[in-house]
Amino acid sequence: MQNRIVRSGLASLAAITLTAGVAGCGSDSGDSTSTGSEGSAISAKRCAENKAAGKITYLSGYQYQSSVSILEYIAADKLGYFKDLCLDVDLKPGTGDTAQITKLLASGQATVGPVSQQDVIQARANGIDITGISSYSGAGLEVLMTNKDITDLTQLDGKVVGHKGFVPAGVRAMLVKAGVKWDSLKLVKQGYDPSVLPRRQGGLEALTGFISNEPNQLKAAGKDVTVWKPIDYGVPSSLGAMAVNPKFAQANPQAVEDILRAALHAYDYCSADDKHITECVGYAAQLSGPTYDKKLNATIWKTETQVAKDNPTSGQPFGAIDPKNVAGLVDMLHQFEIVPDSVTAARAERWFDTSPVTNIYAADKLVWPAP
């Protein structure tokens, strides 16, 4: 699952100040260019087509957490970008259950929502009909943390490794690629308190997590750990990936393009500087209520957009799908027998459509306003 779950126990976390100079998506969105009036950023003909698409339900990955693939959609709504493009978008908070999200998308109860590329492949392999339409990076958020005395992953042979219910395929692939004897590991389920790692609870030597969550928690608490990233070992993943109901996409291709256009425009706006980050996180807080931890969520956004900046999709405009990454994911899923051999790279590539993103760029520049 690409959006980690922030539990109530994280509410008191003090945020860590990270570099705010993160990448935008191409268009110059340093200031909100919305006029707040319907159709102000689109031709009359295209506006009418978008209106004809009807209500579009966006389902988030987990509540209104300030993750990529969530915050920019909230901001696009609050900044008026959807209205500018004559889109009627209804924001709904997801539960964090990826299987539920894929089923709701396939049934048409949701129109568009965050689904990792790996999960799109697994869903389609299981007969759940959704289409992947974008991804910000071939890097993911899932990581492995160890205490500082672990300087080589092979030192984990025979040791206790904690997880949240299962070891993510990307983390397992990293360990295997690094030469760790997988069958020697003592895998144990842990809760959502990462302090068990520095405390070495139950002999714990490593713990899975998400780069924008547990490492920031531990750093704020003065606990120094080493973060091991699958991308550093050439293991594919995805970040900010989105999927759509295929029937809606087929009937309303321009509306799908413009949903992404508005979101990418908002991504750029929310990433411009600390002031804009605070503003956009504030929009998420308005939807979430008084217990929303703005500092924590600003840190989540800064961390995840930095991952996207550091690991761009090769040879593609920002947000477009890299077919080579899809093929790499298929290979990894075969390695651990997660999908059958009948799921080939060529077949999986047909489950993704990069045209909604590539069609909204001109010379690697996001086109705003729309045609």
Account of the 3D structure:
- The protein is α/β, with parallel strands linked by helices and 371 residues long.
- The longest helix has 18 residues, at 253-270.
- Residues 1-27 have low confidence and may be disordered.
- Helix 6 links the parallel strand 8 and strand 9.
- The chain is globular.
- It has helices at 44-52, 71-78, 81-84, 98-107, 117-125, 169-177, 214-220, 246-251, 253-270, 274-288, 294-310, 323-335, 345-349, 355-358; strands at residues 55-59, 62-63, 88-92, 94-95, 112-114, 131-134, 142-147, 160-163, 186-189, 204-210, 225-228, 242-244, 361-362, 365-366.
- Helix 2 (71-78) crosses helix 10 (274-288).
- A five-stranded mixed sheet has the order 9-8-10-7-11, covered by helices on one side.
- It contains 14 helices and 14 strands.
Features:
single chain, 371 residues, alpha/beta, five-stranded mixed β-sheet, three-stranded antiparallel β-sheet, 14 strands, 14% strand, globular
**Unreliable sequence segments:** 1-27
Mean pLDDT: 91
Please count the helical segments. 14
User: Strand-residue fraction?
Assistant: 5-15%
Rounded radius of gyration (Å): 20 Å
Number of strands: 14
Reading the helices and strands in chain order gives: HEEHHEEHEHEEEHEEHEEHHHHHHHEE
Question: Brief description of this entry?
Answer:
The protein is an alpha/beta fold. The protein has 14 helices and 14 strands.
List the helices and strands and how they pair.
Blueprint: H1 44-52, E1 55-59, E2 62-63, H2 71-78, H3 81-84, E3 88-92, E4 94-95, H4 98-107, E5 112-114, H5 117-125, E6 131-134, E7 142-147, E8 160-163, H6 169-177, E9 186-189, E10 204-210, H7 214-220, E11 225-228, E12 242-244, H8 246-251, H9 253-270, H10 274-288, H11 294-310, H12 323-335, H13 345-349, H14 355-358, E13 361-362, E14 365-366
Parallel strand pairs: 1-3, 8-9, 8-10
Antiparallel strand pairs: 2-4, 5-12, 6-12, 7-10, 7-11, 13-14
